[in-house]
Amino acid sequence: MGDELLKVTDLQVGFSTEGGLARxxxxxxxxxxxxxxxxxxxxxxxxxxxxxRSILGVLPKNSARIGSGEIxxxxxxxxxxxxxxxxxxxxxxxxxxxxxxxxxxFNPVFTIGAQIEELMKWKSPAIExxxxxxxxxxxxxxxxxxxxxxxxxxxxxPDPAAILAKYPHEVSGGQRQRLMIAMALLPEPRxxxxxxxxxxxxxxxxxxxxxxLRRLATDLGVSVLxxxxxxxxxxxxxxxxxxxxxxxxxxxxxxxxxxxxxAHPYTVRLLQSLPSRDRGxxxxxxxxxxxxxxxxxxxxxxxxxxxxxxxxxxxxxxTEVGANHLVRCYHPETTTEAAP
Length: 340
Hints:
Layout: E1 4-17, E2 20-33, E3 37-41, H1 48-56, E4 64-73, E5 76-77, H2 83-90, E6 95-98, H3 112-123, H4 138-154, H5 160-165, H6 173-185, E7 191-195, H7 203-220, E8 223-228, H8 231-237, E9 240-245, E10 248-254, H9 255-260, H10 265-272, H11 309-313, E11 319-322, E12 325-327, H12 332-335
Parallel strand pairs: 3-8, 3-9, 6-7, 7-8
Antiparallel strand pairs: 1-2, 1-4, 4-5, 9-10, 10-12, 11-12
Protein backbone atom coordinates (compact mmCIF):
# COMPACT_ATOMS: atom_id res chain seq x y z
CA MET A 1 0.00 0.00 0.00
CA GLY A 2 1.02 3.61 -0.36
CA ASP A 3 1.34 6.45 2.10
CA GLU A 4 -1.32 7.32 4.64
CA LEU A 5 -4.17 9.14 2.89
CA LEU A 6 -6.73 9.58 5.69
CA LYS A 7 -6.22 9.55 9.46
CA VAL A 8 -9.00 9.97 12.00
CA THR A 9 -7.70 10.70 15.50
CA ASP A 10 -9.66 10.75 18.77
CA LEU A 11 -12.92 11.63 16.99
CA GLN A 12 -15.87 12.18 19.31
CA VAL A 13 -19.32 12.86 17.84
CA GLY A 14 -22.66 13.12 19.63
CA PHE A 15 -26.24 13.88 18.63
CA SER A 16 -28.68 15.96 20.62
CA THR A 17 -31.85 14.01 21.42
CA GLU A 18 -34.84 14.50 23.70
CA GLY A 19 -33.24 12.08 26.15
CA GLY A 20 -29.84 13.77 26.13
CA LEU A 21 -26.63 13.60 24.12
CA ALA A 22 -26.17 10.29 22.27
CA ARG A 23 -22.42 9.58 22.15
CA UNK A 24 -22.33 7.92 18.73
CA UNK A 25 -18.54 8.05 18.18
CA UNK A 26 -16.36 7.68 21.25
CA UNK A 27 -12.75 8.79 20.61
CA UNK A 28 -12.44 6.79 17.37
CA UNK A 29 -9.09 6.26 15.61
CA UNK A 30 -8.99 5.09 12.01
CA UNK A 31 -6.78 5.31 8.92
CA UNK A 32 -6.65 4.48 5.19
CA UNK A 33 -3.53 4.26 3.01
CA UNK A 34 -3.32 5.29 -0.63
CA UNK A 35 -4.72 2.53 -2.86
CA UNK A 36 -6.15 0.57 0.07
CA UNK A 37 -9.67 -0.80 0.51
CA UNK A 38 -10.60 -0.70 4.19
CA UNK A 39 -13.74 -2.37 5.46
CA UNK A 40 -15.59 -0.74 8.35
CA UNK A 41 -17.76 -3.46 9.88
CA UNK A 42 -20.08 -3.87 12.84
CA UNK A 43 -23.71 -4.24 13.83
CA UNK A 44 -26.32 -1.68 12.82
CA UNK A 45 -26.00 1.42 14.99
CA UNK A 46 -22.29 0.99 15.72
CA UNK A 47 -21.35 4.33 14.11
CA UNK A 48 -20.18 3.29 10.63
CA UNK A 49 -22.35 5.75 8.73
CA UNK A 50 -21.71 8.56 11.23
CA UNK A 51 -17.95 8.13 10.72
CA UNK A 52 -18.41 8.20 6.94
CA ARG A 53 -20.57 11.31 7.13
CA SER A 54 -18.06 12.98 9.45
CA ILE A 55 -15.34 12.46 6.85
CA LEU A 56 -17.60 13.88 4.14
CA GLY A 57 -18.59 16.80 6.35
CA VAL A 58 -22.33 16.21 5.97
CA LEU A 59 -23.43 15.69 9.57
CA PRO A 60 -26.74 17.43 10.43
CA LYS A 61 -25.74 20.83 11.80
CA ASN A 62 -28.81 21.20 14.03
CA SER A 63 -28.12 18.05 16.07
CA ALA A 64 -24.56 16.78 15.56
CA ARG A 65 -21.87 17.81 18.06
CA ILE A 66 -18.17 17.16 17.39
CA GLY A 67 -16.55 17.06 20.81
CA SER A 68 -12.92 16.43 19.89
CA GLY A 69 -10.58 14.94 17.33
CA GLU A 70 -9.12 15.45 13.89
CA ILE A 71 -9.88 14.11 10.41
CA UNK A 72 -6.70 14.58 8.37
CA UNK A 73 -6.98 14.02 4.64
CA UNK A 74 -3.72 14.39 2.73
CA UNK A 75 -2.36 16.20 5.79
CA UNK A 76 -5.14 18.81 6.12
CA UNK A 77 -7.59 18.75 9.02
CA UNK A 78 -11.04 18.68 7.41
CA UNK A 79 -12.73 19.69 10.68
CA UNK A 80 -10.83 22.99 10.57
CA UNK A 81 -11.88 23.82 6.99
CA UNK A 82 -14.81 26.12 6.24
CA UNK A 83 -17.90 24.77 4.47
CA UNK A 84 -17.16 26.57 1.18
CA UNK A 85 -13.71 25.00 0.95
CA UNK A 86 -15.05 21.54 1.72
CA UNK A 87 -17.77 21.89 -0.91
CA UNK A 88 -15.52 23.15 -3.71
CA UNK A 89 -12.20 21.38 -3.06
CA UNK A 90 -12.90 18.18 -1.14
CA UNK A 91 -16.45 16.83 -1.08
CA UNK A 92 -17.53 15.46 -4.43
CA UNK A 93 -14.08 16.03 -5.87
CA UNK A 94 -11.26 14.46 -3.82
CA UNK A 95 -13.68 12.43 -1.69
CA UNK A 96 -16.77 10.96 -3.36
CA UNK A 97 -19.64 8.78 -2.20
CA UNK A 98 -21.46 5.65 -3.39
CA UNK A 99 -24.80 5.37 -1.54
CA UNK A 100 -26.46 2.27 -0.20
CA UNK A 101 -29.66 2.42 -2.24
CA UNK A 102 -29.23 2.82 -6.03
CA UNK A 103 -33.00 2.97 -6.49
CA UNK A 104 -33.47 6.32 -4.72
CA UNK A 105 -30.16 7.91 -5.73
CA PHE A 106 -31.36 9.38 -9.03
CA ASN A 107 -34.05 11.98 -9.65
CA PRO A 108 -36.81 10.11 -11.50
CA VAL A 109 -37.92 13.07 -13.68
CA PHE A 110 -34.57 13.69 -15.42
CA THR A 111 -32.63 11.46 -17.77
CA ILE A 112 -29.47 9.80 -16.48
CA GLY A 113 -27.43 11.84 -18.97
CA ALA A 114 -28.85 15.15 -17.71
CA GLN A 115 -27.99 14.28 -14.11
CA ILE A 116 -24.44 13.18 -14.94
CA GLU A 117 -23.96 16.32 -17.04
CA GLU A 118 -24.96 18.46 -14.05
CA LEU A 119 -22.35 16.64 -11.95
CA MET A 120 -19.65 17.24 -14.55
CA LYS A 121 -20.58 20.91 -14.85
CA TRP A 122 -19.54 21.46 -11.23
CA LYS A 123 -17.11 18.63 -10.44
CA SER A 124 -15.34 17.87 -13.70
CA PRO A 125 -11.58 17.20 -13.26
CA ALA A 126 -11.10 19.82 -16.00
CA ILE A 127 -12.04 22.48 -13.41
CA GLU A 128 -9.23 23.41 -11.05
CA UNK A 129 -10.09 22.96 -7.37
CA UNK A 130 -11.44 26.20 -5.94
CA UNK A 131 -11.92 27.80 -9.36
CA UNK A 132 -15.14 29.69 -10.01
CA UNK A 133 -17.42 27.72 -12.33
CA UNK A 134 -18.61 29.87 -15.19
CA UNK A 135 -20.53 29.11 -18.35
CA UNK A 136 -20.58 25.44 -19.37
CA UNK A 137 -18.95 25.84 -22.78
CA UNK A 138 -19.69 23.55 -25.72
CA UNK A 139 -16.03 22.48 -25.84
CA UNK A 140 -15.91 21.39 -22.20
CA UNK A 141 -19.34 19.76 -22.48
CA UNK A 142 -18.04 17.64 -25.38
CA UNK A 143 -14.85 16.69 -23.51
CA UNK A 144 -16.83 15.77 -20.41
CA UNK A 145 -19.28 13.65 -22.39
CA UNK A 146 -16.42 11.71 -23.98
CA UNK A 147 -14.99 11.06 -20.53
CA UNK A 148 -18.41 9.92 -19.25
CA UNK A 149 -18.81 7.52 -22.19
CA UNK A 150 -15.35 6.07 -21.60
CA UNK A 151 -15.97 5.54 -17.89
CA UNK A 152 -19.36 3.91 -18.48
CA UNK A 153 -17.60 1.36 -20.68
CA UNK A 154 -15.03 0.89 -17.90
CA UNK A 155 -17.78 -0.04 -15.43
CA UNK A 156 -19.08 -2.54 -17.99
CA UNK A 157 -22.24 -0.74 -19.09
CA PRO A 158 -23.08 -1.65 -22.70
CA ASP A 159 -24.12 1.07 -25.17
CA PRO A 160 -23.37 4.13 -22.96
CA ALA A 161 -25.17 6.53 -25.32
CA ALA A 162 -28.41 4.61 -24.90
CA ILE A 163 -27.98 4.44 -21.11
CA LEU A 164 -27.53 8.24 -20.90
CA ALA A 165 -30.76 8.80 -22.81
CA LYS A 166 -32.81 6.67 -20.41
CA TYR A 167 -34.65 7.61 -17.24
CA PRO A 168 -33.60 5.90 -13.97
CA HIS A 169 -36.59 3.55 -13.92
CA GLU A 170 -35.59 2.17 -17.31
CA VAL A 171 -32.37 0.54 -16.04
CA SER A 172 -31.86 -2.30 -13.55
CA GLY A 173 -30.59 -2.02 -9.98
CA GLY A 174 -27.20 -3.42 -10.95
CA GLN A 175 -26.90 -0.88 -13.77
CA ARG A 176 -27.85 1.95 -11.42
CA GLN A 177 -25.16 0.92 -8.95
CA ARG A 178 -22.59 0.79 -11.76
CA LEU A 179 -23.71 4.29 -12.71
CA MET A 180 -23.24 5.44 -9.11
CA ILE A 181 -19.71 3.98 -9.09
CA ALA A 182 -18.97 5.71 -12.40
CA MET A 183 -20.24 9.03 -11.03
CA ALA A 184 -18.04 8.61 -7.95
CA LEU A 185 -15.02 8.05 -10.22
CA LEU A 186 -15.72 10.90 -12.67
CA PRO A 187 -14.11 13.69 -10.59
CA GLU A 188 -10.93 11.54 -10.29
CA PRO A 189 -11.09 11.30 -6.47
CA ARG A 190 -8.44 10.05 -4.09
CA UNK A 191 -11.00 8.39 -1.77
CA UNK A 192 -14.39 6.78 -2.40
CA UNK A 193 -16.72 6.15 0.53
CA UNK A 194 -19.00 3.23 -0.32
CA UNK A 195 -21.81 2.92 2.23
CA UNK A 196 -23.03 -0.69 1.99
CA UNK A 197 -23.31 -0.34 -1.81
CA UNK A 198 -24.49 -3.91 -2.47
CA UNK A 199 -27.19 -4.25 0.21
CA UNK A 200 -30.11 -3.60 -2.15
CA UNK A 201 -28.84 -5.98 -4.85
CA UNK A 202 -29.25 -9.72 -5.32
CA UNK A 203 -26.32 -12.05 -4.63
CA UNK A 204 -25.24 -12.48 -8.26
CA UNK A 205 -25.14 -8.73 -8.92
CA UNK A 206 -23.41 -8.16 -5.57
CA UNK A 207 -20.52 -10.37 -6.69
CA UNK A 208 -20.21 -8.46 -9.98
CA UNK A 209 -20.21 -5.07 -8.25
CA UNK A 210 -17.59 -6.17 -5.68
CA UNK A 211 -15.33 -7.56 -8.41
CA UNK A 212 -15.73 -4.34 -10.41
CA LEU A 213 -15.00 -2.08 -7.44
CA ARG A 214 -11.92 -4.16 -6.52
CA ARG A 215 -10.57 -3.97 -10.08
CA LEU A 216 -11.20 -0.24 -10.45
CA ALA A 217 -9.52 0.53 -7.13
CA THR A 218 -6.48 -1.51 -8.17
CA ASP A 219 -6.26 -0.09 -11.71
CA LEU A 220 -6.88 3.55 -10.78
CA GLY A 221 -5.11 3.61 -7.40
CA VAL A 222 -8.19 4.94 -5.60
CA SER A 223 -8.65 4.27 -1.88
CA VAL A 224 -12.02 2.95 -0.72
CA LEU A 225 -13.75 3.10 2.65
CA UNK A 226 -16.23 0.23 2.44
CA UNK A 227 -18.83 0.21 5.22
CA UNK A 228 -20.80 -2.99 5.68
CA UNK A 229 -22.38 -5.29 8.26
CA UNK A 230 -21.74 -8.29 5.99
CA UNK A 231 -18.46 -10.00 6.91
CA UNK A 232 -18.64 -12.18 3.81
CA UNK A 233 -18.66 -9.07 1.62
CA UNK A 234 -15.77 -7.59 3.58
CA UNK A 235 -13.78 -10.80 3.07
CA UNK A 236 -14.28 -10.58 -0.70
CA UNK A 237 -13.09 -7.02 -1.24
CA UNK A 238 -11.12 -5.54 1.67
CA UNK A 239 -7.36 -5.33 2.24
CA UNK A 240 -7.85 -4.44 5.90
CA UNK A 241 -10.82 -4.50 8.25
CA UNK A 242 -11.70 -2.27 11.19
CA UNK A 243 -14.40 -3.42 13.60
CA UNK A 244 -16.63 -0.98 15.48
CA UNK A 245 -18.87 -1.66 18.45
CA UNK A 246 -21.26 0.91 19.95
CA UNK A 247 -19.24 3.86 18.66
CA UNK A 248 -15.77 2.52 19.52
CA UNK A 249 -13.24 0.92 17.19
CA UNK A 250 -12.13 -2.33 18.82
CA UNK A 251 -9.89 -4.08 16.29
CA UNK A 252 -8.08 -3.44 13.01
CA UNK A 253 -6.15 -6.05 11.03
CA UNK A 254 -5.23 -7.19 7.51
CA UNK A 255 -8.12 -9.26 6.14
CA UNK A 256 -6.33 -12.62 6.19
CA UNK A 257 -5.22 -12.26 9.81
CA UNK A 258 -8.55 -10.79 10.83
CA UNK A 259 -10.43 -13.93 9.78
CA UNK A 260 -7.70 -16.37 10.86
CA UNK A 261 -6.84 -14.97 14.30
CA UNK A 262 -9.31 -12.42 15.69
CA ALA A 263 -8.10 -10.90 18.95
CA HIS A 264 -11.02 -8.98 20.47
CA PRO A 265 -13.84 -10.92 22.21
CA TYR A 266 -16.45 -9.02 20.17
CA THR A 267 -14.72 -9.88 16.89
CA VAL A 268 -14.53 -13.55 17.92
CA ARG A 269 -18.25 -13.57 18.75
CA LEU A 270 -19.08 -11.71 15.54
CA LEU A 271 -17.27 -14.31 13.43
CA GLN A 272 -18.84 -17.15 15.39
CA SER A 273 -22.29 -15.74 14.61
CA LEU A 274 -21.77 -16.50 10.91
CA PRO A 275 -23.76 -19.56 9.76
CA SER A 276 -21.71 -22.77 9.83
CA ARG A 277 -22.48 -26.39 8.95
CA ASP A 278 -20.49 -27.52 12.00
CA ARG A 279 -22.12 -25.47 14.74
CA GLY A 280 -25.14 -23.67 13.25
CA UNK A 281 -25.72 -20.06 14.25
CA UNK A 282 -24.29 -18.76 17.53
CA UNK A 283 -25.66 -15.45 18.76
CA UNK A 284 -24.00 -12.86 21.00
CA UNK A 285 -25.62 -12.77 24.48
CA UNK A 286 -27.03 -9.47 25.69
CA UNK A 287 -27.91 -6.41 23.64
CA UNK A 288 -26.19 -3.34 22.24
CA UNK A 289 -25.99 -0.60 24.91
CA UNK A 290 -27.81 2.69 24.60
CA UNK A 291 -25.59 5.57 23.51
CA UNK A 292 -27.11 8.26 25.74
CA UNK A 293 -25.76 6.56 28.88
CA UNK A 294 -23.29 3.95 27.54
CA UNK A 295 -21.31 1.71 29.89
CA UNK A 296 -17.93 3.14 30.91
CA UNK A 297 -14.60 1.75 29.74
CA UNK A 298 -14.90 -0.83 26.97
CA UNK A 299 -18.52 -0.69 25.86
CA UNK A 300 -18.55 -4.43 25.16
CA UNK A 301 -17.71 -5.43 28.72
CA UNK A 302 -21.34 -6.10 29.87
CA UNK A 303 -21.57 -8.83 27.18
CA UNK A 304 -18.01 -10.17 27.46
CA UNK A 305 -17.12 -13.46 29.18
CA UNK A 306 -13.56 -12.25 29.79
CA UNK A 307 -14.42 -8.88 31.33
CA UNK A 308 -12.69 -7.82 34.54
CA UNK A 309 -12.96 -4.75 36.75
CA UNK A 310 -10.45 -2.80 34.68
CA UNK A 311 -12.58 -3.30 31.54
CA UNK A 312 -15.40 -1.28 33.07
CA UNK A 313 -13.11 1.32 34.63
CA UNK A 314 -11.06 2.55 31.67
CA UNK A 315 -11.21 2.01 27.95
CA UNK A 316 -8.24 -0.18 26.88
CA UNK A 317 -5.40 1.37 24.94
CA UNK A 318 -4.24 0.12 21.55
CA THR A 319 -2.20 -3.10 21.64
CA GLU A 320 -0.34 -4.46 18.60
CA VAL A 321 -0.77 -8.25 18.56
CA GLY A 322 0.67 -8.79 15.07
CA ALA A 323 1.94 -6.95 12.02
CA ASN A 324 -0.55 -4.07 11.57
CA HIS A 325 -2.96 -5.98 13.81
CA LEU A 326 -4.27 -3.58 16.46
CA VAL A 327 -6.78 -4.31 19.21
CA ARG A 328 -8.32 -2.45 22.16
CA CYS A 329 -8.60 -5.13 24.83
CA TYR A 330 -6.99 -5.95 28.18
CA HIS A 331 -7.00 -9.67 27.30
CA PRO A 332 -6.23 -9.90 23.57
CA GLU A 333 -3.92 -12.91 23.63
CA THR A 334 -6.43 -15.13 25.44
CA THR A 335 -9.08 -14.61 22.76
CA THR A 336 -7.18 -15.67 19.63
CA GLU A 337 -7.71 -19.35 20.49
CA ALA A 338 -11.47 -18.79 20.37
CA ALA A 339 -11.44 -17.97 16.67
CA PRO A 340 -13.59 -20.29 14.54
